[in-house]
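Late entry, evening session. Most of the bench is empty. Finally got around to the prediction I had been postponing all week. Sequence below, unchanged from the version circulated by S.P.
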Amino acid sequence: MSEIWTVAYNIVLVILGINALIIVHEWGHFIVARMCGVRCEKFYIWFDFWGLKFFKFKWGNTEYGLGLFPLGGYVKMLGQEDNPGELRKELERAKTAGTGDLPPNENEQTPPQPGTGTSDKLNEAVFAKDSFLAKSVPQRLAIIVAGVVMNFIFAVVCATAAYMVGIEETAPSIGSVVPGSPAWDVGLEAGDRITAINGSPARMFTDINMAMVGNESGVKLAVERVYGKSEITVIPRKRPSDLIPMIGIGPLPTLHFASNKQAVYDNCKPLYPKETLDELTKRLTDLRILEVNGTAVKTFAEFQEEQLKQFDKPVNVGFVNAKNEPYQTEVPAIPMLETGLRFRMGSIVNILPGSDAEEKGIKTGDKIVAVDGQTDLDPLKLPQLILQKVNEGKTSVELKLMNETNIERIVVIELKPERQIPQLGFLSMKDPVGSTALGLTWTAEPVIETGELAGKRVISVKILNAERVLKNSSFMFADSEGVQFTGVGDKVDIPYIFDKILNNSPVKKNKPPNPLVVRLGIEENGKPTTVDLPVFYSKDWFNTDRGFLLKAESVMVKITSFGEALQLGTAKMVEYSLSVFKFLQALTNGSVSPRALSGPVGIVSLAYRFADNGFGTYLLFLCMIGANLAVINVLPIPVLDGGHVVFLLYEGITGKAPNETFQVIVSYMGLALILALMVWVISLDLSCISRF
């Protein structure tokens, strides 16, 4: 019952918040129009196309109502029209019945001159006194920009309230670094805490991600570490299949379980004894990990270090909860799902700066042929082969390398005592496989190396009987049978499919345990064909954690002083507003994909997620949306407020309104642009268009 109330509460919050954005914008237009003496005939939340509405009532000269179509809202002023098809009709309707009240000889006047005030007098005479068009240019400008101003004020109010209520957000601490990523290249490590970004304080993890858009030349990070502080400049990177520039980091987990209802991920539950899951679930209130194999652990890094010493074996883990109830149990190793295929080892694509591999002259394009004499290398399993050697106490490995001209050489590489493998931390569909201990990353070619299919190139992969993994994101094509990837080796690489997606694919509920099947599309004699392969648990490839559903490190940002909260709220509004311009610039130069845009469905879905994370977090989300909508509304596009501002500025400078025909034409162009954009983003939201 409590869960139902929580869902209902979040839904109400979303409805109220999204509509508040509309109401304050339209109320800004409405109240300033009334102050200027303009007749406001209608004030509607949502649209009443074809007269369809939930209700209406009249108060004074204004009809108030709730339309049937939840796409925004509007104020209908006499003489002001956004629909280009109705523009001429509205201009005529706003005119007075005759021209007998024109000033003497004004019909024969030459066009009014700027600064003479003649245009305003003419407007007063030609148009009804309470029409929008009868008002002076400054008055009309005030009416038009009032909506945007109210959005900015609303954004400041929301952010100020959020800081006073308190915002629990993911801390700006690094939990994993993807091998080969920009963060890996500059030496960022798990456990690092980002304290400032380009000189501004970093309060939450999302601050880091936001800073990457529009800063392709580099972002300066102030980093706090166990052994001191440093400043690092990192250059974000966007691969062809990425939506936005990224640096390749994940947030830092804690030892506390994230949920009071679920202890481990769904795909790991079949590997746990039922009694263990039941006992963990009973103790989930503030349950946390205390020790591994008798060794006390205080941080997630320490937990990983201890459990990865026996990543392929069960370990004994001690827990304690809010009631100080201890519990100890054996936790199984978590084997990966695989098909038994081994893919061809690809080329080295990254070398860790300052590593022994760099010192020994290893180059990108080289290919690892053997490790300590072992030649049957699986590119996906090689990181764990290196981890096994670290666990055995080895300090070096012998690599046989082949360069691009097929010349082989032997190189002995010193190993870093590094056990962390962010195996499931791929942020991009083109991330390589790698090992920080080795200081190298490499690709896996979509060519099969073993069995009857040896030498065949994979062109598509479909995971049958799998639920969609990344909902509302269109990261892959999904149908009634499962999840499919096309463009293998081009748009998406083998590691992303077999390391991340296959091993995170929930099985459809009406299927028996582990019924996943992989359907390969391969090229054979120049023709495509398909092969179905069963999926099973590997005997020599393991997940790098135990499947625990752990909470990320969080920070509570709460300001008790209203003045300080207002200052921070204003700064946050400005930051969100400027981020729109950065995003638009990044769209034009290609550093952000247009497929990263979200429409109303995506915004509402995101709003629900923020509402579920707490009221303060939700208020900050409304600040972001309010500031973004305000900036978008002032873009110089006809039918938007910014388009009206351009027309009014033209009138103020020249002393005459733009030609009606010209206004109609450009308004139709603006409307077409807006409608095309809406179709695009809604198609992305509904997965009619893939985001990749």
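Two things to note before I forget:
The CA atoms of residues 94 and 298 lie 73 Å apart.
The first strand starts at residue 40 and ends at 47.
Will write this up properly tomorrow.
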